[in-house]
Design brief:
The chain is α/β, with parallel strands linked by helices and 208 residues long. The chain has 10 helices and 5 strands.
Length: 208
């Protein structure tokens, strides 16, 4: 059996991965819910492959991968993600990620990806490779807010103007609570933590 560590802070995702791997030659030897737990579990269990979620409390997946590589650990790491921002994609590619699996297609793809990386090859979709190449060659052409829809971009620009949630709601004809929901979603899409970071991204947005 090939030992695999699964790092994801959602129990149903970990259970789903275990169900997919059941009957294969891959066996989960540890399951963790944060980057810090993951690094400790890798040292303890020495898995052949690390299956790593991008969004976790504490150290996220990108930071965990980078920390692993800084230690000189080159074991295969496969990212499990629902979506990945441009900055995250560039960071994991630079850190030498071996595979990327979309959560919505994991049932049919996961074992093939694990087989590929265990054989010493990369399992990254061509679309991700092309996107990373485009970003590397022409980073200025990409807006930091390109992951947002038009309504979210407008909210970002209003935040950059120093407007409060109540005022943004009044400007857009929506409730203050709805603005908070939008902001939470935007923070997740952009991999940021607060409105200050959002304002800085909005100010630097070439799309203005």
């Amino acid at each position: 059996m090939i030992p695999v560590l699964v790092a994801d802070d959602h129990g149903f995702i970990r259970a789903g991965v275990e169900a997919v791997l059941r009957g294969s030659r891959f066996q989960i030897v540890a399951a963790t819910a944060s980057g810090e737990e993951t690094l400790a579990a890798i040292a303890t269990h020495d898995p052949a492959i690390v299956l790593l979620d991008l969004k976790m409390p504490g150290m996220n997946g990108v930071q965990t991968l980078e920390a692993l590589r800084e230690k000189g650990d080159g074991r295969p790491v496969v990212l499990l993600t629902a979506e990945i921002t441009d900055s995250q994609l560039l960071a994991v590619m630079r850190a030498g990620v071996q595979g990327i699996v979309c959560k919505h297609g994991a049932e049919s793809e996961l074992i093939d990806v694990l087989e590929t990386v265990h054989a010493g090859e990369k399992a990254i979709m061509a679309s991700y490779l092309q996107r990373a190449l485009d970003l590397s060659l022409n980073p200025a052409a990409h807006s930091p807010l390109e992951q947002l829809n038009p309504r979210e971009r407008r909210i970002a620009r209003l935040v950059a103007r120093g407007m409060r949630n109540r005022d943004i709601g009044a400007e857009l004809g929506i409730g203050e609570g709805t603005v908070k929901v939008y902001l939470h979603t935007m923070y997740q899409k952009l991999d940021i933590d607060n409105r200050t970071e959002l304002a800085l991204l909005a100010v630097s947005d070439p799309a203005g």
